[in-house]
TrEMBL record:
GO terms for molecular function: 1-deoxy-D-xylulose-5-phosphate reductoisomerase activity; isomerase activity; manganese ion binding; NADPH binding. It is an enzyme of class 1 (oxidoreductase). GO terms for biological process: isopentenyl diphosphate biosynthetic process, methylerythritol 4-phosphate pathway involved in terpenoid biosynthetic process. Residues 147-230 form the 1-deoxy-D-xylulose 5-phosphate reductoisomerase C-terminal domain. It holds the Pfam family DXP_reductoisom. InterPro entries: DXP_reductoisomerase (IPR003821), DXP_reductoisomerase_C (IPR013644), DXP_reductoisomerase_N (IPR013512), DXPR_C (IPR026877), DXPR_C_sf (IPR036169), NAD(P)-bd_dom_sf (IPR036291). Residues 262-379 form the DXP reductoisomerase C-terminal domain. The keyword Coiled coil does not apply. Residues 5-133 form the 1-deoxy-D-xylulose 5-phosphate reductoisomerase N-terminal domain. Its cofactor is Mg(2+); Mn(2+). Pathway: Isoprenoid biosynthesis; isopentenyl diphosphate biosynthesis via DXP pathway; isopentenyl diphosphate from 1-deoxy-D-xylulose 5-phosphate: step 1/6. Coiled coil: none annotated. This is 1-deoxy-D-xylulose 5-phosphate reductoisomerase.
Length: 389
């Protein structure tokens, strides 16, 4: 049966790969909505190819420019803007599945809108779960809406849990590549460049998540997301470094059995599984060659030189609005690093300072969460400014 899909973040890495999967199976998937922040060049081309019924350009000026460009063309979609436009598109009446591939906690409100509308949510926006996991969990319980994780690690865990009893799960094991700087000391990391940090050894991803992978913050955010997605205590979620990135994650059961999900390092595999679930479609790339892989190795994560992972565990241990502060501060610090305003090692230092200053609030109140994020960003920006000066 044809699935109608909304793609939030259609110009990013996950969005583009989702469109690639959709175009391979036009008889199965139909795009009814697309959303970008400012990338109207990409969106204009997608409108021509996919003919969605509605699109969102968050930036108001860019939305006006796109409106001028497509005026007079055929099949003009409804054009929305702002965060409210994202929420409206996430609840589109014709959508069967909403893929949230937005970058950052801006994805929280659209996540909630999709769940409140009873949509199946294909989630590739971990930040919304980190910032508002308690709120998301409450809305999901109230509506019964389904969340299908898109990130390779959570998608792997989801697949390993199919057909299993939750009460028999002993722990989740989230794998990490270790990023481009695995093995370096903190002092050696002080001089790394943006260009070096963006050269991930295994995955092709957007700039923000690539930097998060380099700092190990990405694994920390994934631990918090897994806690909310699978309703398990953080003490039952471990991280292990697996440089080959062939095992995407594992689940250990009470009897000592461990299920591992293995596959190519290509996001089209989990994306396609999410879109076609519960069915499976032919792979979009060749089978994994174990002889070519040769060996699989594992290491403990180095939290001494990459402390962001430890800060994430501390945030989820403290609970309340600490994860929201962790996420908001990280977003500001990563953006400053990508703009070459601060050093790579300033990222964890800024996060540590903001967390230590935080006074926690009610994590189930959206207004409090959003205000907490705002204040955390302001303080992080002051710290960034002091480093620039």
């Amino acid at each position: 049966m044809l699935k109608n899909i909304v793609i939030l973040g259609s110009s990013g890495s996950i969005g583009l790969q989702t469109i690639d999967v959709v175009k391979r199976y036009p008889e199965l998937f139909n795009v009814v909505g697309l959303a970008v922040n400012k990338s109207i060049d990409a969106l204009e081309q997608q409108i021509k190819e996919l003919r969605p019924k509605a699109v969102v350009v968050v930036d108001a000026e860019k939305a006006q420019e796109l409106s001028r460009r497509i005026a007079g063309t055929s099949n003009i979609p409804e054009l929305l803007t702002s965060i409210e436009g994202l929420e409206q598109l996430a609840a589109h009446p014709e959508a069967d599945l909403v893929l949230n591939a937005l970058v950052g906690s801006v994805g929280l409100r659209p996540t909630l809108a999709a769940l409140r509308a009873g949509k199946t949510l294909a989630l590739a926006n971990k930040e919304s779960m980190v910032a508002g996991g308690a709120i998301v969990a409450k809305v999901r319980e109230e509506t019964g809406a389904e969340i299908l994780p898109v990130d390779s690690e959570h998608n792997a865990i989801f697949q390993c849990m199919v057909g299993e009893r939750k009460r028999e799960i002993k722990r989740l094991i989230v794998t990490a590549s270790g990023g481009p700087f695995r093995g370096r000391t903190f002092s050696e990391l002080e001089s790394v460049t943006v260009e070096e940090a963006l050269k991930h050894p295994r995955w092709t991803m957007g700039p923000k998540i690539t930097i998060d992978s380099a700092t190990l913050m990405n694994k920390g955010l994934e631990v918090i997301e897994a806690h909310w997605l699978f309703d398990l205590p953080y003490e039952q979620i471990d991280v292990i470094v697996h440089p080959q990135s062939i095992i995407h994650s594992m689940v250990e059961f009470e009897d000592g059995s461990i299920k591992a999900h293995l596959g190519q390092t290509d996001m089209r595999i989990p994306i396609q599984y999410t879109l076609s679930y519960p069915d499976r479609l032919p792979a979009p790339l060749p089978s994994l060659d174990f002889v070519e892989v040769g060996k699989l190795t594992f290491e403990k994560p180095d939290v001494r030189n990459f402390p962001c992972l430890a800060y994430a565990y501390e945030a989820i241990r403290l609970g309340k609005t600490y994860p929201a502060v962790l996420n908001a501060t990280n977003e500001q610090a990563v953006a400053a690093f990508l703009s070459k305003k601060i050093r790579f090692t300033d990222i964890p230092n800024i996060i540590k300072q903001v967390i230590e200053r935080h006074e926690p609030g009610d994590e189930t109140d959206l207004g409090i969460v959003l205000e907490t994020e705002h204040r955390a960003r302001e303080y992080a920006d002051r710290l960034i400014t002091s480093l620039i000066l």
